[in-house]
Amino acid sequence: MEAGGVGLALQTRAAGFGTGPRRGGLQSPIGSLRVAEPAGAAVAVRARGSKPVAPLRAKKSSGGHENLHNSVDEALLLKRKSEEVLFYLNGRCVYLVGMMGSGKSTVGKIMSEVLGYSFFDSDKLVEQAVGMPSVAQIFKVHSEAFFRDNESSVLRDLSSMRRLVVATGGGAVIRPVNWKYMKKGLSVWLDVPLDALARRIAKVGTASRPLLDQPSGDPYTMAFSKLSMLAEQRGDAYANADVRVSLEEIASKQGHDDVSKLTPTDIAIESFHKIESFVLEQTADNAAGDSQAESQVQRMQTL
Ligand SMILES: Nc1ncnc2c1ncn2[C@@H]1O[C@H](COP(=O)(O)OP(=O)(O)O)[C@@H](O)[C@H]1O
Ligand SMILES: O=C(O)C1=C[C@@H](OP(=O)(O)O)[C@@H](O)[C@H](O)C1
Ligand SMILES: [Mg+2]
Questions:
Q1: What angle do CA 204, 205, 208 make, to 5 degrees?
Q2: Check: complex ipTM more than 0.95
Q3: What CATH code is carried by the domain that includes residue 129?
Q4: Atom of ligand 1 nearest to the CA of 266
Q5: Which of 55, 98, 117, 153 has its CA 20 to 30 A from that of 80?
Q6: Number of domains in the chain
């Protein structure tokens, strides 16, 4: 069951949760949640049918100049792709889903900044709604169920808004009602191999992720085994997302044998590619459906 009226008293800007542009503002139906009006209108959007952006190039790992050029290329590609996607999204929100450590918060922030959307991290919103400084503390003082109820309330409140990128918590996918909320926008699954997740988490520690926190043991091994269990329990819940962004696929396109070579920007660019393809397919399907319905009407009229 959902927590009744989390009442997001969101001082989002002051608390540093929103990273979008600060012009204007939209009043949310829940009253106190204000999000900045996106800069979308000011961005020159590229109409459908425009030239496709060049495919990702394989990166070489030599010298400083090369790296600088790669970063500049990446930033330009990201910007161009975001301009196209802005058009296709037409104000719809983007929800990032994926296992803990998959990069939802990191990649989501990049996507929001370049789209001119506001960014929200659902974990941070739950912390704020409950009035506690960390998810770990919420689990400890209350329970996982209490956290999940608040997580659903936060997603419900966000689902009535537009022009947001939302980084969800890794477990948000397990409740069907959360999908009802996320399906109001477009969902992106960051699919990262367990080994890479465990490496990332071992690097930063598990204190902020209560489901992985272990008092002892080798951090990588402990994280890997817990993540494997969770992945099994969650089955294919992540596959409900509208698009899947596979780090293994990106790495192989770029000629890398290891996903750890991929930057968050690479992943944001691929997410935009996938969103664009999804919306185009959806549009084509709708057009086919419309023309079928039209022919049927015409046939009936001639009878
Ligand atoms: N592409 C990447 N390459 C290397 N480390 C990354 C990448 N994306 C995220 N990280 C790191 O992995 C950790 C988890 O990322 P985060 O964005 O918090 O994931 P999530 O929100 O999905 O749990 C962070 O320490 C972050 O800096
Ligand atoms: O997978 C999960 O069940 C969780 C993921 C966490 O968010 P991140 O995926 O951002 O780490 C956070 O919501 C909580 O610790 C539970
Ligand atoms: Mg996160």
A1: 100
A2: yes
A3: 3.40.50.300
A4: 1
A5: 98
A6: 1
Distance 154 CA to ligand 1 centre (A): 22
The answer to whether the beta carbons of residues 9 and 132 sit under 8 Å apart is no
Nearest atom in ligand 2 to the alpha carbon of residue 121 is 10
Helix H or strand E encompassing 112: helix 104-115
Nearest to 95 by CA among 181, 157, 15: 181
Parent domain of 152: 12-39+78-302
Residues less than 5 Å from ion ligand 3, measured at CB: 104-105
For the Cβ of 98 lying below 6 angstroms from any atom of ligand 1, the answer is yes
pTM of the full structure? 0.82
Query: What span, in angstroms and rounded, lies between the C-alpha atoms of 209 and 103?
Result: 14
**In angstroms, how far is CA 29 from the centroid of its own chain?**
23
* Model confidence pLDDT, tens digit, residues 28-69: 323 334 343 333 333 222 333 344 434 444 454 556 787 888
Ligand 2 pocket: which of 138, 140, 211 to mutate (most atoms within 8 A of CB): 211
